[in-house]
Amino acid sequence: MLKNSVQDPASLTVEERLELLKSVGTGGEITEDEGQLRWLLENRKPYEIIAYDGFEPSGKIHIAQGLLRAININKFTSAGVKFKMFVADWHAAANQKFGGDLDVIKKVGDYFVEVWKACGINLEHVEFIYASDLVKDPNYWELVLKISMNTSLKRVLRCTQIMGRNSTDALQSSQILYPLMQCADIFVLKTDICQLGLDQRKVNMLAREVAKPLGFHKPAAIHHHMLMGLGKPPENNMDELDKKIARKMSKSDPNSAIFMLDTRKQIQKKIGKAWCPPQQIEENPVLEYCKYIIFERFDEFKVERPDQYGGNITYSNYDDLAKAYTAGELNPVDLKNTVVKYLDELITPVREHFAKNSKAKELSDFVQKAMEKQFKSSKKGKK
Hints:
Helix content is 51%, strand content 9%. It has helices at residues 14-24, 34-43, 67-78, 89-94, 102-118, 131-134, 138-149, 153-159, 173-188, 201-211, 240-247, 264-272, 285-297, 318-326, 332-356, 358-382; strands spanning 29-30, 49-55, 81-87, 126-130, 193-194, 220-223, 301-303, 313-315. Helix 10 (201-211) links the parallel strand 5 (193-194) and strand 6 (220-223). The protein is globular and about 70 Å long.
């Protein structure tokens, strides 16, 4: 049975609201002690607190950006926090997505919004904002300049990892602007809490460093866990954060990600090939989806199997499921088949929305063609 993912903050105590916010950082990081978050909850009225996350419109949306994002946003709005979803279209252009074509990127951004509206987000206290609207204000660029004057080039280059760039050798000049713009966004959006993935940590730390010199309050940051891709984790000697970034779900490898419009057959094929060693919990993406998505949305995890293989069994929490898997009482095939069932149930409403809504279908078709064109262009460029 699906859980009710939305609560009224008026029915919760400050401690309960604080626990909701902290639960978003489970497996990730909260960069402030509880004091700053508690102060916000105690001294601001519901929905006067503002959190934000930003997304480049760069292609299809996978379940980390869709299902997991919906779960976390609903926790924030249930805690009495207004959430601003920032469509970073200018940032995507600066990062050379779709050849920097803003018209294409904006339409891909419209597709993002359409997916979010269909994937279970409580929209009452969520606002969608496009970077293309912010940059019209000359004060925005003045702020970008001021941030650059308070930041070394070395510090900005370290932040370029937020764009998915591991090397600075081939950066375009526009990509150096990207971290400065993202830092400016935080202040222009009047953000109290930066709520992004761990891969965005460096620019959030930059914003916290320059806030006081520029006359802004220092934002708190709650970084959520980055959902793993379906492939085998990297084995090289990276530090812990770089390892998490390297193994995260990425749309650049379609076979490593479950997308929000994937059919059940596609989900089954991808999960069937997923890295899922018997009795191993660590770095097991299939179990991660149970922990961070399925048990967040369902009251139980019911495994259906023939009597000769143990019969049906139901787990009411992740810890019991993990113990059973570690002990060998649940094998990878049965685990995967059950995960497919639950993920498909969560994605089905989104598929149906895009099948029945003509505007949504048009946007989906547009994104598919734009991605095909981008793929052909990239292959041509490599010859």
